[in-house]
Amino acid sequence: MKVLLTGANGYIGVRLLYELLKQDHEVICAVRSAARLSVPQEIKDQIEIVEIDFLKVDKTTSLPQNIDAAYYLIHSMSSSTDSFDSLEAESAQHFVKLINATSCKQIIYLSGIVNEDKLSKHLLSRKRVEELLYQADCSLTVLRAGIIVGSGSSSFEIVRDLCEKLPIMITPKWVNTKTHPIAIRNVMSYLTGVLGRTDCYDLSYDIGGKDVLTYKEMMTRYAAMRKIQLYIFTVPIMTPKLSSYWLYFVTSTSYKLAQNLVNSMTIEVVATENDLTQKLDIPLYTYEEALHMAFAKIEQNQVASSWKDSMVSGRFKYNINKYKQVPSYGCLKDAQQLKTDDTAAALERIWSIGGNNGYYYATFLWKIRGYVDKLLGGVGLRRGRTNANTIYAGDSLDFWRVLVADKKEKRLLLFAEMRVPGEAWLEFEIDDNNTVHQTATFRPRGIWGRLYWYSMLPFHYFIFAGMIRHIANGK
Prior knowledge:
Blueprint: E1 2-6, H1 11-22, E2 26-31, H2 41-44, E3 48-51, E4 69-72, H3 84-99, E5 106-112, H4 121-133, E6 139-145, E7 148-149, H5 154-165, E8 168-171, E9 178-179, E10 182-183, H6 184-193, E11 203-207, E12 213-214, H7 215-226, E13 231-234, H8 240-250, H9 255-264, H10 276-280, H11 287-299, E14 332-339, H12 343-351, H13 363-375, E15 396-397, E16 400-406, E17 411-416, E18 422-430, E19 435-444, H14 446-473
Parallel strand pairs: 1-2, 1-4, 2-3, 4-5, 5-6, 6-11, 7-10, 8-13
Antiparallel strand pairs: 9-12, 14-19, 15-16, 16-17, 17-18, 18-19
Helix pairs in contact: 1-6, 3-4, 5-7, 8-9, 12-14
């Protein structure tokens, strides 16, 4: 089948892309920018990529005409705390208008479980999008999920951060809310299983795993599996705003996402029974089994996607291509170069920078900078990196965004998503003479930008010199 995949650079979208290709479907990925699709080049060679922003549709915008089905995976929850619902509705309306001009027979939408009378703004928005998608000329199949557990999922990473970093927790009463976690592997089975099935047309299904748990039980079971001593004390006085700050500072989530998540965590999200599991013959996993599978992927360095690589995890939501050309006019630079005796080893060190590997020299100062950034409302260092030694353009890397990752050309270009009074790039390149070039470029914004750069010069002097020494020669 010829399948349109929207939200292709998101956590679900990237994984679904791999599954669809495994099943020999012809896939068209709809993304805002082709540079943001964080998959290997050999995957890009197998698909068609169309650049489209469903919030900016005009008379010239169109989709490929001869498609059989489309996945709608567009969400705006991380981009705003006030207007994400109107943004999601606008995207859905534009999508319906465009899909009606194609030969599409089925839309598949991954929504949230909406069985309670009182819903959060987030869940109300998902329900509203369902209603809008039902207005399309083709059939709609809706899969409604709650907590998705898998390596790189926001829910898994939040639970992991909380349990690994806080042996004693003072928690709000929403930790006793019931939810219905589901393994990412089961989600993939449902998403691909309903594709092209006419007996699933114009129907909505709740999907969940084997266990219904409270958030507290999810954390205590995680701690038990990891053999961590965990003590949780619940208090009734913690406000949603305070809870949001708590999640923001302890975990890798953004504040906007934390606020929207907390508002939804007061609502029970439990799947209503239906016959879809039997119809598709899907073996469901327990919560513990989902955790074990997630850690197996992490330990094997095979995390296919992470919510942190989505652009909404950082500051820059739209076109990153304009930052790929590093400017020279009006910029301040720190340029270092050093010959290496082992080009391959130096390139591997460049490709492994950040995350748990650190920055090879004075990493504690980078960590302090990350803490300061977090206090200022930035992303900090907690995003880390998805895999230990593989990078793709569009990935997040601590408080950087990867703009160029060309291993053949031996070039890595990073753009800063930390809060700075200007714009910052960090570039690594190895030339044909086996010389490692390391360039930090800063385009200041006004006098405060220049003061920031010059105040950091004493640190830059030995941090950057030490970093290139370790990259070039491993010492």
